[in-house]
Amino acid sequence: MSKEEEKAALNSSDNNSIYETDPEDVQAPGNPISTLDTATGFSLIDDTNPQEIAADEDLADELASDLEYLDLVHLKVKSLENLNLDRFAQLTGICLRQNLVDSLVPLKAISKKDQVTELDFYDNRINHISKHVNEFENLEVLDLSFNKIKNIKNVDRLSKLKKLYLVQNKVHEIKNISNLKSLETLELGGNKLTEIGEELLNLSSITDLWLGKNYIQRLQNLDSLKNLEILSIQSNRLTKIEGLEELVNLRELYLADNGISKIENLDKNTKLEVLDLTSNKIEHLENMSHLTSLTDLWFSYNKISSFAEVEKELSKLPQLDTVYFEHNPIQTENPTSYRRKLKLILGSSLQKIDATYIRS
């Protein structure tokens, strides 16, 4: 799958549909829950009869005591308690992705927590971030995506944390992260956020911020993120582009699947290379001719009807090589001449239209 196809899969026009109802509220007895993995686009169906592999000494005994990276992926491990984590004196990282772990409390058994830089419990059954997570003061990567966590807490002492992943949980509010001064990547897609909280104002080191598939209504509290390069707030409830004036280093902006009706307030974002406004309510191309670094423009499923506007706003963008305008009036009303006109207007730099390369 190409990079463009991967992005297109993420930018589903079914805005928030898979998050409107909590699966726990509607599951019928005996029926598996199906959720969507936002990284792949594939449905994940819970195993209703998991064959649990006991997390006991037998499993851990197979591993050398001088192990530095504990990797037990997709083994249906349910409990950490009997893994005897204390005997792994040289641990620097733990990866227990795709298991059935429901508690992080047993992490307290690790004696040399200061050596551990990575904890990865992606796709488990965790509903609470244990206070013992806060004891890993040199932690750089924490991945708790695809769990059942409602509150961000017990991470405030992780001053060296660089990457925090909490995708597809049940988080309602961004909080208790203002002390994470080293944080570079924050991923909170697929949660229940309704606003971008003030906690972010203290996190000037962030370069990547992913907030897609939530219920956010306004772009706000982003002013201090001077180093931000990637911002994704697709599939939310935005109606206006605003609050981005201070993000002068922004390179990629994903605003697909919202209710935006106008292109505006991008005057200071001259380093933009990728702009995704797929599936909005935009009728006119405007306020874009200054984006001379733009290489990719994603604009499918809008209401653009004027080739003259395309020429005025885009013909002088020297780096533009990929455009998507399918399911706009300029495409639906001109099916035979659409590609030819775009090629003539946008010139030799254009390489791809709607995922199809231009023939030389």
From TrEMBL:
Residues 10-19 have a biased composition (Polar residues). One of its GO terms (cellular component) is nucleus. Residues 123-319 form the Disease resistance R13L4/SHOC-2-like LRR domain. One of its GO terms (biological process) is maintenance of protein location in nucleus. The keyword Repeat applies. GO terms for molecular function: protein phosphatase activator activity; protein serine/threonine phosphatase inhibitor activity. InterPro entries: Leu-rich_rpt, Leu-rich_rpt_typical-subtyp, LRR_dom_sf, LRR_R13L4/SHOC2-like, SDS22/Internalin_LRR. The keyword Isomerase does not apply. Its main location: nucleus. Pfam families: LRR_14. Keywords: Leucine-rich repeat, Nucleus, Repeat. Belongs to the SDS22 family. PANTHER family: LEUCINE-RICH REPEAT AND IQ DOMAIN-CONTAINING PROTEIN 1-RELATED, LEUCINE-RICH REPEAT-CONTAINING PROTEIN 9. This is Conserved nuclear regulatory subunit of Glc7p type 1 protein serine-threonine phosphatase (PP1).
